[in-house]
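STRUCTURE REQUEST FORM
Protein name: 2-polyprenyl-3-methyl-5-hydroxy-6-metoxy-1, 4-benzoquinol methylase
Source organism: Novosphingobium hassiacum
Requested output: structure tokens
Priority: standard
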Amino acid sequence: MNETVGMAAAYNDKPDVYFGEGRHDYIAQLPPNTNAKILEIGCGNGSTGALALQAGKCSDYIGVEIFPPAAKVAEGRLTKVHIGNVEDMPLPYPEEHFDALILSEVLEHLVDPYLLLSGLVRKVKPSGLVMASSPNISHWRILRNLISGKFEYQDKGPMDRTHLRWFTPESFRRMFEDAGVEVLSVGPVAPPRGKARLAAKILGSGFEHLLFSQVSLIGRRT
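Status: completed
Returned output:
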């Protein structure tokens, strides 16, 4: 319990927006289903779940959040919120219970995301949606810093000091495949624009990962 409290305290200095950016892109991926059940790990203040419920994409939206102040706000928006560290929390739902699983910018904060993901995927119905995102450690800015001998933690971004794990698009894909997910797409959270878009065309598909600041994955449980 004390360890969980200590981990939650690490988020005390985060601005409110850190816990409250709804994922409109994920809501767009969800089929209209007023009977669907959705599980989100790291639900923040419940912004994404509120969008899903308002859009008629589900009847039950269950969230898990480690930071109590954000979770308390989410409780007023979602069907149910479990407050605590998901790695230490047995979730009271059977296998094949949920129609979709959302993990937005959360796996990088976990001690063993590989083990947790396998268990979470089993709670999703066969062919149920799995959507996740995470910072991309192979972004060109991070590689430039590594070449310069720099590996410095920051208050936000890919090198956020609360991150415990890092992924490339390929390692992110492999983690989900190993957990029993058929990966349908892996790409940037937001498509490159301006100079980055031009660079993507020049580099070609073999190097486009250098321009992803965040990786977005869409898949289905096998």
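Reviewer notes: The mean pLDDT is 89. Helices lie at 2-9, 24-29, 47-54, 68-75, 113-122, 140-147, 169-178, 194-203.
Form closed.
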